[in-house]
């Protein structure tokens, strides 16, 4: 009898807090994305099992004793399903931040997370986290540390403005010591009414890559970049386009480097089946190199939050005459509780 009472007491201690937190407690979420791939870079041709930025996170809101204001938080980590660790780490940091959200004035966050410039891509990338990702031909895909961002509330239920800055914290970039209150900026204005998505984004002196400089062997530079995005999503069709110009903010040894890139993507949805494709081109103005991306694939939903997929992608360089190709099949499960 005493053992039964003790079990009931322990059970009530476990259950009661979960009931109390049920309506305001944190949300645990994530996804597992695993693919079996044949990767051929022209030198090595091998089969791999890849984890494709699988992740787990927790996020939520807390009521405050201030009218219309809530505290917000998120902690998201990448997990490697295939090997169990990423360069010796069980978890590697993704988007992690804290902040405040006002019902009428907008949201303020600080931490490490995707810049407004990166997020402006919306859903144009049909092969995100796979080898067909637009990052093969488009630079500026940064998850920045020490970033502070303000996001406006939606205007007319469609328009959002995002402004972010990053203090340099004494880092040296392109020979200059960055120690000011705001050494780098990232911004975007986004229109999204569910059918049409449009975004215009700008980075100023952001520590990121310009493929042109990398091909010339340069390093340690800050970048100015402009990105324009448009996408139409209907019941059966998705069509998107992204155009971007990037250049080094300061000359490197008297030379400036500039990329111009674009991506077009599309998809056809047939009940549970989604057929998709995208093409991208980067023109490296200084070196004269060109990068080309081509990807085709299909997703099949086996449940609301689960799918299986197959795809083929190829990335080529013109002057260097290289070709990387990947064929893969896999699955993705998303979860939230």
UniProtKB/TrEMBL annotation:
* Signal sequence range: 1-22
Alphabetical keyword list: Cell outer membrane, Ion transport, Membrane, Porin, Signal, Transmembrane, Transmembrane beta strand, Transport
What topology does the record note for this protein and the membrane? Multi-pass membrane protein
Q: Give the principal location in a single coarse category.
A: membrane
A single GO cellular-component term from the record reads: cell outer membrane
Pfam families cross-referenced by the UniProt entry: Porin_4
* Molecular function GO terms recorded: porin activity
Note the Gene3D superfamilies from the entry.
Porin (2.40.160.10)
Q: Source species, please?
A: Marinobacter profundi
How is the quaternary structure described?
Homotrimer.
- Any GO BP: monoatomic ion transport
Q: What is this protein called?
A: Porin
Q: Which InterPro entries match?
A: Gram-neg_bact_OMP, Gram_neg_porin_domain, Porin_dom_sf
Entry's localization field: Cell outer membrane
Q: For the Porin domain, which residue ranges apply? A: 12-318
